Amino acid sequence: MSTTTLTTKRPFPALGERNYGSWADDMEAYLKTLDLWDVTDDPMAAPLPEDAMNLTTEERKEVRDWEKRKGQASGQIWLAVEDGQKVHVKEVKSDPAKMWLKLKEVHVQQKPGTRFNAYDALLGLRKLEGEDFTIDSLDNDLTSMALICALPAEYNNFVSSLLLLDSLDLSKLQSAFQNEESQRFTRGVDASPSLAMAAGSTSISSWKPVGVTMHTRKPESSSISWMKKSLTLNAF
Fold it and tell me: What is a single Pfam family found in this protein's UniProt entry (predicted)?
């Protein structure tokens, strides 16, 4: 593989204390434009000579190119973090894959501060003037969120389509789950247990998504206000 001429100026802010999410997306895209993402994301893709003690000319060139691109990726990551963040990757700055994982480990943690910020953002929501907002509507939204969050990664495209709905009304959501399950059955694709259980004809109240503790009370007429009155999202 040919090496890359690095002439593109980084078009996004360096990594600081509070911008890891956007930085990681931008940095991934940036490394891809420089043809350096594979050495960062998939170190197992490195060329493996048949005989490490007796490399052919072509194998020697492939190994040399790979190592050169590793150095380029490491340098780009190092230059894309603020000075205060470099301490986290100083010991592994010759390996872009280890640098990437270390930064993720540092910034994506399940610590009390992370949970506090998440709850603070939720509880900081305020009702707009004229907005129809009740405890039941909040229950509806949180239940819908729990159903969506329980889906495994292979349903990401389906989740993206759900977020295009005009609302996350529970009945609409269950209809969407039922349709997706039906489509997967028609195509001979196994549906996730989470999807099947949520889409089933039985009451959603009996369904418990992975990682979510739900407390329910009995239904009152046709209202969905019987849905859970508390959610503990273990993802926080």
Answer: Retrotran_gag_2
Which residue's structure tokens are 């994301």? 41
Residue 132 CA to residue 186 CA, distance in Å, equals 39
What six digits make up the tokens of 9?
Answer: 């100026």
Burial of 59 (0-12, 13-18, 19+ CB in 10 A): middle
Residue at token pair 């907002």: 133
The number of beta carbons lying within 10 Å of the beta carbon of residue 72 is 20
Query: Residues near 142 by Cβ (< 8 Å), separated by ≥ 6?
Result: 228, 231
Q: Are 201 and 186 in contact (CB under 8 A)?
A: no
Cα 15 from chain centroid?
Answer: 18
pTM, to two decimals: 0.47
Query: Within the chain, which residues score under 50 in pLDDT?
Result: 1-4, 201-236
Where helices occur in 16-56 by DSSP H, the ranges are: 20-33, 37-41
Give pLDDT tens digits for 75-120: 999 999 999 999 999 999 999 999 999 999 888 865 566 666 666 7
